[in-house]
Amino acid sequence: MKITDLKGTTRLSNGVEMPYLGLGVYKAEDGEEVINSIHYALDAGYRLIDTAAFYKNEEGVGEAIKKLNIDREDIFVTSKLWIDDQGPDKTRKALEDSLDKLGLEYLDLYLIHWPVPGKYLESWKVMQDLYAEGKIKAIGVSNCLQHHLESIKKLGGVQPMLLQNEFHPRLIQQELLDYCTQNEIQYQAWSPLMRGEILDNTKVKAIAEKYQKSVAQIILRWDLQKGVASIPKSVHKSRIIENAEIFDFALTTEDLVEIDSLENETRTGAHPDHFMEYFQK
Fold first, then answer.
1. Hey, where's the site called Lowers pKa of active site Tyr on this chain (predicted)?
2. Which residues have CB under 8 Å from 195's CB, separation 6+?
3. Nearby residues of 118 by Cβ (< 8 Å), 6 or more positions away
4. pLDDT greater than 80 at residue 49
5. Binding residue per annotation — 113?
6. Residue 281 has pLDDT above 80, yes or no
């Protein structure tokens, strides 16, 4: 990944150019809140918006995009197939519902949100068809481990172009990251700032002081230098702008190693093998 500026991209395995830094809108309320946050981001130069059916704000995302005078081709929109919509009979309709709410004719990227046992492989077959039909420019998965990716590989056909997982200094999973690199699967971070829990870390604070940057900026720069695309979420204009101000410095190898040393397999969300119990609580 060549890091240039906010409009820089990473090339997916099928040749699609995807911005390596975007705005996540998880928990942004549909309507004014999500519309404003997207306007702040697009005005600042962001060009990737990540939503999902589960977020219940696709209509607001679509309205925000429609209101701005930016060509559709210049905005990269991601959405995701929810747990309840998986299986051969529901996947196509789920995509159509998302497109209808977003007011779009196609998605730039569509992900299986969580790998529902007994269903995600069947959903993947349908997503391969939707990709072939041009309704999705790229397809991938979220919240998966290597064994899920291996199951998809055995299925054959078009393979995931992207894996979106929880990723931050406490949860790096370097072996999985290496596997994705070897198999031309772009890794993308959700919760890159660990829901704010990493912002008080003394090691990262020391690095931040060295560069006169915020801890969040250091971590987001670390993401990109590790080849990981990132979608930090915020509804606050100042933070959205701050998160993008990471292109006027570069971390040293020593800095990267120091941040890598924080790994302790801590998750803020569900484990990919046990998420059904998590969402049934």
1. 80
2. 268
3. none
4. yes
5. yes
6. no
User: Under DSSP, is residue 74 helix (H, G, I), strand (E, B) or coil?
Assistant: helix
Find out whether 50 and 21 touch, Cβ atoms under 8 Å.
Answer: no
Residues 127-167 have pLDDT tens digits of: 999 999 999 999 999 999 999 999 999 999 999 999 999 99
> 68 CB contacts (<8 Å, ≥6 apart)?
39, 42
**Residue 144 covered by a domain:** yes
The domain that holds 253 is classified in CATH as: 3.20.20.100
Number of domains into which the chain is organized: 1
Helix (H, G, I), strand (E, B) or coil at 81: strand
Residue 4 within a domain: no
Positions marked active-site: 55
Q: Which two tokens stand for residue 114?
A: 């969580």
**166 touches 128 (CB < 8 A):** no
Asked if the structure places residue 224 within a domain, the reply is yes
pLDDT at 280: 72
